[in-house]
């Protein structure tokens, strides 16, 4: 049994999780979440600041020293600070997800090096948890779809603007539009500017996701289970026509599985 600290640095949020992991390499074994924490991603950060944030997050989790650390960072300017902080705070070298890392999943992609580490983690966890085929949808700054085909290969995906990004675009592009709360309105046809914006942004996102799921199934020629993760996954799931499984720890669990795949 190993303890693995996983860190997923996104554009908006940074998620940290602690897992107990059985097995090595692609060997089967349980991966159990022991604790997690969500932080706001800062635009700039030093290694010392990242270490302070990391220590605060770890104080909310069981007090165990990790045997391994794995880092996913989609903000290139923050990678070195987090790598240094993890190495100092945990006294182990962090495994940074990127080109050359073993994932245990075949990539049917024109250039696998282009696939972000969070997308890879989602694909790995979705296949390990739900089998193949499966579609993983991650809500954040962008809404990402990762498609695993019947052969268990990463077939590709979709990247679209996320809900919050869409709302900010409206607010910034139109001077008279207000800042809105990202929740579904009571009716589709808004009777106020805020309700109209909420309908367009929130209900529009649900409609777009449903439409893209239909398009994915049509292109594949078959349907697949759908795992939904990320910011506001539970609320959005209630608005979808398709049946989905809300999986809040999908990305972090994928990172733990990637760490295990690279353990000798």
UniProtKB/TrEMBL annotation:
The active site is at 118 (proton acceptor). GO terms for cellular component: cytoplasm. It catalyses: (R)-pantothenate + ATP = (R)-4'-phosphopantothenate + ADP + H(+). Its cofactor is NH4(+); K(+). Pathway: Cofactor biosynthesis; coenzyme A biosynthesis; CoA from (R)-pantothenate: step 1/5. It is found in: Cytoplasm. Its EC number is 2.7.1.33. Keywords: ATP-binding, Coenzyme A biosynthesis, Cytoplasm, Kinase, Metal-binding, Nucleotide-binding, Potassium, Transferase. ATP binds at residues 8-15, 141. K(+) binds at residue 138. GO terms for molecular function: ATP binding; metal ion binding; pantothenate kinase activity. A monovalent cation. Ammonium or potassium. It is an enzyme of class 2 (transferase). The keyword Zinc does not apply. The keyword Zinc does not apply. Its main location: cytoplasm. InterPro entries: ATPase_NBD, Type_III_PanK. Substrate binds at residues 109, 116-119, 193. One of its GO terms (biological process) is coenzyme A biosynthetic process. Belongs to the type III pantothenate kinase family. PANTHER family: TYPE III PANTOTHENATE KINASE. Homodimer. Catalyzes the phosphorylation of pantothenate (Pan), the first step in CoA biosynthesis. This is Type III pantothenate kinase. It comes from [Collinsella] massiliensis. The lineage of its organism: Bacteria, Bacillati, Actinomycetota, Coriobacteriia, Coriobacteriales.
């Amino acid at each position: 049994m190993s303890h693995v600290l996983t860190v997923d640095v996104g554009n908006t949020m940074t998620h940290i999780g602690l897992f107990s992991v059985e097995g090595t390499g692609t060997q089967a074994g349980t991966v159990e979440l022991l604790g997690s924490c969500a932080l706001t991603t800062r635009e700039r950060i030093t290694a010392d600041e990242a270490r302070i944030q990391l220590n605060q997050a770890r104080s909310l989790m069981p007090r165990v020293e990790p045997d391994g650390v794995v880092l996913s960072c989609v903000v290139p300017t923050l990678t070195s600070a987090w790598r240094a902080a993890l190495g100092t705070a945990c006294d182990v070298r962090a495994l940074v997800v990127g080109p050359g890392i073993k994932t245990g999943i075949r990539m049917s992609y024109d250039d696998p090096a282009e696939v972000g580490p969070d997308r890879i983690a989602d694909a790995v966890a979705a296949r390990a948890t739900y089998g193949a085929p499966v579609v993983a949808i991650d809500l954040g700054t962008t809404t990402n779809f990762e498609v695993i085909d019947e052969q268990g290969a990463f077939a590709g995906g979709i990247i679209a603007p996320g809900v919050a990004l869409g709302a900010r675009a409206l607010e910034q592009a139109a001077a008279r539009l207000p800042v809105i709360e990202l929740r579904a309105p009571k009716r589709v046809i808004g009777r106020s500017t805020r309700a109209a914006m909420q309908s367009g942004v929130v209900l529009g996102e649900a409609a777009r996701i449903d439409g893209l799921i239909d398009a994915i199934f049509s292109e594949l020629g078959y349907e697949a289970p759908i795992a939904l993760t990320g910011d506001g996954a539970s609320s959005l799931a209630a608005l979808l026509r398709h049946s989905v499984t809300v999986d809040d720890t999908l990305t972090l669990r994928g990172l733990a599985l990637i760490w295990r795949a690279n353990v000798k």
